[in-house]
Design goal:
InterPro entries: Na/ntran_symport, SNS_sf, YocR/YhdH-like. One of its GO terms (molecular function) is symporter activity. One of its GO terms (cellular component) is membrane. This protein is an all-alpha fold. The protein has a single domain, classed as Hydantoin permease (Orthogonal Bundle), CATH 1.10.4160. It is 72% helix and 0% strand. It has 17 helices and no strands. Helix 3 packs across helix 16. 54% of the residues are buried.
């Protein structure tokens, strides 16, 4: 049995957790949902939801992970401090998280392949944004020809993205994930700031910011708030074992309240900054912000073509998307890899190779082909790509999070309080407030989200 590894320091852990949460949820999904839901109202509710739901839920998974210091399955079977054994049936929660992790990686890596496709074609000049495009026909045709109708090329770029993940992950948690996150996160912030800086002088900057931050209170509805809560799930990588796994490498001396709060704040800042990358450009080009999921891949390239050095800014933007996706995907993979390492007693390299090959064959390839030869193969009226997305987001993530809350509040009880207070060293009224909140209130909120998600099927 190899020695237990811990994060080198708190900053490294925070950067890794931030990387895990700053993926397509922040940089792709959040902006298009803002565009669809009237701008500032969605942003306001997202910030509120992060405080009321996101940070408390991060703490739930932190408690489970650091208390057990095991993989996301066995974390649910560690006996309590008084020697009371926990029913092994609780391991089902960990397995539900693994299924959810498989589901998101199945299509998430393909999105990475899409982004790679854009970067390569802009860089080689095959997708030219150096002169103003008057409508979306050009970008729609590119999307159709290179994404929808070219599964071979998307498959190749997806494989490249998977290979990069494999190269990092096979080195382990310290020499792999920790080392590369220290390089990737500054690169992500650099790309983010370059694109935002390029937008400041745009003619549509003021209109874009006004749409983005002005709150129309008539749009603040209960349904919108439930939708925002679902986005917080997606944005924070909750419900599929990421936070449990990452916090299992965290020192017992770290203040979980502090690290969870910083994580939530960083995620919110990046999500909000993503809007400053997108909406000024959209309004400068006179485009419709409510473009849905195609906002980044079809609408935004038109906007870049109206900006000086549009090709360069587009490359930085899509590079930022790719880095954000990479810092998330390596942590999701790590959930499954850690389980295989500890359950099967195999090396990190073997667990990594097995995990990525299986997901590539049974998840990534079907998702690639969902827009090609398998486009007519539907499950619950969805193609394979959309099915993986819908089932993971609306069922497995939410159900796992609900059971995590019940486990911490109703099974761990005093053990949870001891863990979050560092065995009583942290004297704060928030300890009891948090415990009662996640025991009585948060499960009800998650149950509402779960029921709302089921109505989409």
């Amino acid at each position: 049995m190899k020695d237990k590894q811990l994060w080198s320091n708190k900053l490294t852990y925070i950067l890794t957790v931030a990387g895990a949460t700053i993926g397509f949820g922040c940089t792709w999904r959040f902006p298009y949902l803002v565009g669809e839901n009237g701008g500032g109202a969605y942003v306001l509710l997202f910030c509120i939801a992060m405080i009321l739901f996101g940070i408390p839920m991060i703490l739930v998974e932190n408690v489970i992970g650091r208390r057990a210091m095991k993989n996301s399955v066995d974390a649910f079977s560690v006996a309590k401090k008084d020697g009371t054994k926990i029913n092994p049936a609780w391991k089902i929660v960990g397995y539900l998280g693994l299924i959810g992790a498989f589901g998101i990686l199945a299509y998430y890596m393909v999105l990475g392949g899409w982004v790679f496709t854009y970067i390569a074609n802009i860089f080689t000049g095959n997708f030219d944004l150096s002169s103003a495009i008057t409508n979306k026909v050009y970008t729609q045709n590119f999307y159709n020809q290179n994404i929808v109708n070219n599964p071979l090329m998307v498959g190749i770029y997806t494989f490249v993205f998977v290979f990069i993940n494999w190269y990092i992950l096979k080195k382990g948690i310290i020499d792999g994930i920790e080392k590369f996150v220290k390089l990737l996160m500054p690169l992500l912030f650099l790309c983010l700031l370059i694109v935002i800086s390029g937008n400041i002088m745009l003619s549509g900057f003021e209109d874009g910011v006004r749409f983005y931050l002005s709150v129309d209170f008539s749009k603040l509805t209960p349904k919108l708030f439930i939708d925002v809560l679902g986005q917080v799930f997606f944005a924070l990588s909750l419900g599929f074992g990421v936070m449990i796994t990452l916090s299992s490498y965290l020192s017992k001396d770290e203040n979980l309240f502090e690290t969870a709060t910083i994580t939530g704040i960083l995620n919110t800042i990046i999500a909000v900054l993503a809007g400053f990358m997108i909406f000024p450009a959209i309004f400068t080009a006179g485009l419709e912000p409510a473009s849905g999921p195609s906002l980044v891949f079809i609408t935004l390239p038109v906007a870049f073509s109206h900006i000086p050095f549009g090709n360069i800014l587009a490359i930085f933007f899509f590079t930022m998307l790719l880095v954000a996706a990479l810092t998330t995907s390596i942590t999701i993979y790590q959930v499954i890899i850690r389980v295989l390492e500890e359950k099967l007693h195999i090396s990190t390299s073997k667990a990594t190779t097995f995990t990525l090959i299986v997901i590539f064959i049974f998840g990534n390839l079907p998702s690639v082909l969902a827009y090609g030869p398998l486009r007519d193969f539907l499950i619950m009226k969805r193609n394979i790509f959309d099915f993986f997305d819908a089932v993971s987001a609306n069922i497995f993530f939410v159900l796992t999070a609900l059971l995590c809350c019940i486990y911490v509040g109703w099974v761990l009880k005093e053990d949870a309080i001891s863990e979050i207070s560092n065995s009583g060293k942290i004297k704060s009224p928030f300890v009891k407030i948090w415990y009662n909140y996640i025991k009585f209130v948060l499960p009800v909120i998650i149950l509402v989200i779960f029921i709302a998600g089921l109505t989409t099927f």
